[in-house]
Amino acid sequence: MKALTACLTFGFTTVLAAIALAFPAGGLGPGVTGLALTLGTLGAGWAWHTTRDPSKPAMGAWDFIVLTGFALASLRAFLWLIYSRGDEIYVLSPNNLGDMSLHLNFVRYLASGIPFWPESSILTGVPLTYPLGSDLFNSLLEICGVETGRGLIVVALISAGLTGYALWRWAGAFGVAAFLFSGGLAGFAIFKTFTFEDFQAGLVWKNLFLSMFVTQRGLLFALPAGLLLLIAWRDRFFRTGGAPVSPGIQLLLYAGMPIFSLHTFLFLSLILLALFVAKASFRRELLRFVGAAFLPATVAILLVTGGFSTSAGLRWLPRGLLTDGEVWDWIWNFGLILPAGLALAISLWRHPDPEARCLAGTSLGLFVVACFVAFAPWEWDNMKLLMWCWLVVAPTLWTKLILPLPAQARAAVCVLLFFSGAVSLVGGLDGRHGYSIAKHSELDAWKVSVNGISTEDRFACAPDYNHPLILLGRKVACGYEGHLWSHGLDFRPKLNLLKEALADPALWPSAAPALEVQWLALRAQDIPPAQAPEDLLEGGAALYDLSVLEPGRPEPTRLPVRVVSPLP
Q1: What's the longest Cα–Cα distance across the chain?
Q2: CA 465 → CA 120, 262, 381, 481, distances in Å?
Q3: Is 277 helix (H, G, I), strand (E, B) or coil?
Q4: Residues 496, 197: Cα–Cα separation, whole Å
Q5: How does strand 541-545 pair with strand 561-564?
Q6: pTM for this entry
Q7: 253: number of CA atoms within 13 Å, CB side?
Q8: Under DSSP, is residue 252 helix (H, G, I), strand (E, B) or coil?
């Protein structure tokens, strides 16, 4: 417990200190990075000395087996998180095709020293609206000289170790399995195909390890930190009367959580509300805790939402999260989770248990709400809440309903709960996967060509998720459409203007100021052959300086051009 708390305190303190220091310093840099890491180290020492390490639960055979499975899955997923094969740069997970490009952009963009709070790197005229804590931590490593891909892998592996341990301390082997092997019934299709596939991939309730932990980088910090807070609150308010983690560390993790994951912060806030209702004798203590967290948490929320400028996306889903789903579709998606949850709700109603009613009961209620109310523009983002509901329900489900069953019945229930997710996990991590996002030679050529151009300059380019400028951490007028709408940004007018100007170069004298761009970047495939510069090679690109454009002046195709040539 000491190591878990110290590592998380180091991460949170370092990131929050870097943000606070970057404002007066004008951005991240060696000085800010060094001081932030120093403060993080001091915070880790404080956490180590103030954390109690109660006796660990005994580790049985199933604990060892499930934790070994978690370790092997983490090694496979994160050692190949981003890797090279010859000149190609690959990601293992298809879910990371778009996500990894965005995170590479954020990591390199923040490390470039841009002023804080940064403008969005993927849309003109708005602040960066994203819980960037994990990416900012990797930016600090990059400033220290750690190569981007290696830094991403190291942070992911350490976070996976912390998460596996936190899951085990929270809910034992069953809790680890509930996360690692989550799924419905789709995986039973293996008896028809006799081939391992991620059968849950096309459904709403996917394997949580593959769809959330590997791709949603904020959870690398938020998931173990949220579990640590739940362990502390469970011990303090229902079991031992004292939390293993000091109130100061709890405050740091809770108030800083919006920088890493807004959904986790929302879930933890609802748990605190449930504790306030259920535990009258602790209400003054809870009010002091929430009152102390209110200002820093509010500031953090304002930063990552651009002062609530993004669309919250809160709306009713008439037919639920499975928009077109019938009863069978719900069963196929969630499997035994739905009837097990209903049975648990009935059990809690008949047999009062203060801890179970407060924690598991609140989570069951939120699970139902999150199935019918969208909390983000992309309704699938509700999975970030459903995940927490399932993880909090899991230990109570085990102790109240499954453990009392005869051994054969317990085994049957676990097979129904975890078989599909296990099949998806194996199918999602096997050697058939690997998806190219870029070429080293192409990125190197672009890096050389944009060298000397200010990191505060913005480029107009095709809105592709893996455009070289995106991968290099440069600011673009409009990034990938999927990122823009899922982040709740009002991007449509700017994207339409960008597409019109890309199709008609004569529009750039008026479009460039409107899009606040200083450069136009056109790859060979973006330029009609008749307009391509003579020395533009296949696989290359041309950069046009739009800052000299004025109404009535020549269009960009007649401006001085800087050619990007692919390196051998």
Answers
A1: 84
A2: 15, 24, 19, 8
A3: helix
A4: 39
A5: antiparallel
A6: 0.94
A7: 30
A8: helix
Residues counted in the chain:
568
Q: Which residue has the tokens 């809105």?
A: 463
- Secondary structure letter of residue 308 according to DSSP: T
| Cα 387 to Cα 180: distance, rounded to the nearest angstrom | 11
User: How far is 14 from 74, CA to CA, in rounded Å?
Assistant: 24
Angstrom distance (rounded) from CA 362 to CA 350:
16
> Buried (b) or exposed (e) across 391-402, using 16+ Cβ within 10 A?
bbbbbbbbbbbb
Mean pLDDT of 411-432: 94
The residues near 431 (Cβ < 8 Å, ≥ 6 apart) are: none
Spell out the residues 6+ positions from residue 392 whose beta carbon is closer than 8 angstroms to its own.
230, 271, 359, 360, 362, 363
Q: Report the distance separating Cα 335 and Cα 265, nearest Å.
A: 28
Contact 559, 568 (CB under 8 A): no
Q: Find the mean pLDDT for residues 328-344.
A: 93
Cis peptide before 380 (omega within 30 of 0): no
d(CA 430, CA 92): 9
Q: What is the mean pLDDT of residues 356-372?
A: 95
Average pLDDT of the segment spanning 314-337: 83
Residue among 334, 265, 314, 263 nearest 294 (CA): 265
Q: Which residues, at least 6 apart from 327, have a Cβ–Cβ distance to it below 8 Å?
A: none
In the prediction, which pLDDT does 384 show? 95
What is the tens place of the pLDDT at every residue in 221-278?
A: 999 999 999 999 999 999 888 889 999 999 999 999 999 999 999 999 999 999 999 9
Kindly indicate the confidence band of residue 177, based on its pLDDT and cuts at 50, 70 and 90: very high
Q: Give the residue-averaged pLDDT of 466-483.
A: 94
Per residue in 16-69, pLDDT tens?
Answer: 999 999 999 999 999 999 999 999 999 999 999 999 877 777 889 999 999 999
Bigger pLDDT: 543 vs 272: 272
d(CA 334, CA 344): 16
At 149, phi and psi to the nearest 5? -60, -40
- Per DSSP, the three-state class of 245 is coil
Cβ proximity of 495 and 511 under 8 Å = no
**Residue 442 and residue 258: Cα distance in Å, rounded?**
36
